[in-house]
């Protein structure tokens, strides 16, 4: 009697759950040990063999990238939910930038993971610039800002925020006022006037929902 083949959809679901569990374990290891953790440490923390890790990820860098993508997606989804209550796209855009620099205060574990990955792998702003340029283009189309060279300005904006995110991570205690000051300066690089940037950054942030770990 031949055995019925396994259900492909059940196999795929099992593999997806297994991969998600390995990513979650890697994120905790990054938060605790940083990017210098070895592949052996990642495997031991997950309770699997190195060979099992390599079945799901082609290398340690592949594991780090998967961990980074997962954190980024969850963080961005959370920010989108928080800022969605604001009435204009401009206010939502600015609030999202301010929240991004509050990661060390709002979610230390997420921020530690982010710092670990930034330090372990080269940062390519290309994908981030491409995504954010679409939002900046919409602000230009709405007349919220008037600017040229949107792609270049967006890259500078992101570079400012990334540098401040790393600086905030090196502080004994996060300083949201200093982070807001950087957002204000970065907004002028996008074409906001200094007065407009200051007013937007001075606005209260919307109520924060819980960020799932």
From TrEMBL:
Classification via PROSITE patterns: HTH_TETR_2
Pfam families: TetR_N
Keyword DNA-binding attached: yes
Keywords: DNA-binding
One function term, GO molecular function aspect: DNA-binding transcription factor activity
InterPro entries cross-referenced by the UniProt entry: Homeodomain-like_sf, HTH-type_TetR-like_transc_reg, HTH_TetR
Domain HTH tetR-type stretches: 16-75
The keyword Ribonucleoprotein is annotated on this UniProt entry: no
Protein name (database record): Unannotated protein
Native source species: freshwater metagenome
């Amino acid at each position: 009697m031949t055995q019925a083949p396994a259900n492909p959809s059940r196999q795929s679901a099992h593999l997806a759950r297994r991969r998600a569990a390995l990513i979650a374990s890697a994120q905790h290891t990054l938060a605790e040990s940083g990017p210098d953790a070895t592949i052996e440490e990642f495997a031991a923390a997950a309770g699997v063999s190195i060979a099992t890790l390599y079945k799901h990820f082609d290398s340690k860098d592949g594991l780090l990238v998967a961990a980074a993508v997962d954190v980024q997606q969850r963080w961005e989804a959370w920010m989108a939910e928080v800022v969605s209550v604001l009435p204009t796209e401009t206010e939502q855009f600015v609030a999202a930038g301010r929240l991004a620099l509050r990661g060390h205060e709002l979610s230390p574990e997420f921020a530690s993971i982010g710092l670990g990955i930034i330090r372990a792998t080269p940062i390519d702003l290309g994908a981030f610039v491409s995504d954010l340029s679409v939002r900046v283009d919409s602000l230009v189309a709405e007349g919220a800002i008037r600017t040229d060279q949107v792609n270049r300005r967006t890259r500078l904006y992101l570079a400012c925020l990334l540098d401040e995110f790393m600086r905030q991570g090196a502080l004994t205690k996060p300083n949201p006022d200093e982070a807001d000051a950087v957002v204000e300066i970065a907004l002028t690089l996008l074409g906001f006037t200094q007065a407009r940037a200051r007013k937007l950054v001075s606005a209260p942030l919307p109520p924060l929902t819980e960020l799932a770990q």
